Amino acid sequence: MRVYASRLLGSDLESDDVVQDAFLTAWRRLGDLENPAQIRNWMMRIVSNKSIDRLRVRRDHDDIDQRDPEAPRSQSPDRVVETRFQMDAMWSALDKLPLDQRRCWLLRETAEYSYAEIAEALGMSVSTVRGCIARARTFLMTEMEAWR
Predict the structure, then answer these.
(1) Which domain holds residue 111?
(2) For residue 139, what pLDDT band results from cuts at 50, 70 and 90?
């Protein structure tokens, strides 16, 4: 019984306690044993149940703080909502820009095109692209002032 409990529990110290507890339970419930020839199976069943009870009690519970670290401040719910509102305000501001300024600004800031690449893609001169981007930035800075 001790070896069986030890295998179930993985601990010799606990298996001694479980076997002792099983003998006490068997002693108290000896009148429940209908067939004395089945005492071995009956005792092993008691040891098994006591071992399972011990496993349930000692079940390790993971510390959620160790498993799931706190989300960075940038991913907190209030920050995510604030960022969403800020992006909505930015898109609204972009919609107010003249088409050439919007296209130049988007290619520069989102696609990271160089001024020369933007000029080539839109069929403009580099100086026109620079002017469009400068005016777009000035406008957007004014529109987004509340979000600073």
Answers:
(1) 93-147
(2) very high
Rounded to 10 degrees, the C-alpha dihedral 87/88/89/95 comes to: 110
Report the 10 Å Cβ neighbour count for 71.
11
Closest to 41 (Cα-Cα) out of 81, 4, 11 = 4
Q: What is the pLDDT of residue 55?
A: 83
Q: What was the pLDDT predicted at 114? A: 93
Is the domain of 54 the same as that of 98?
A: no
Alpha helix (H) residue ranges in the chain: 2-9, 12-28, 39-58, 64-67, 77-96, 99-109, 115-122, 126-143
Structure tokens at 13: 């110290």
| pLDDT more than 90, % of the chain | 44
Q: What are phi and psi of 119, to 5 degrees?
A: -60, -45
CB 140, CB 90: distance < 8 Å = yes
CA 17 to centroid of chain Cα atoms: 40
Residue 16 in any domain: the answer is yes
Asked if the structure places residue 33 within a domain, the reply is: yes
What's residue 20's pLDDT? 93
In a domain, 122, yes or no: yes
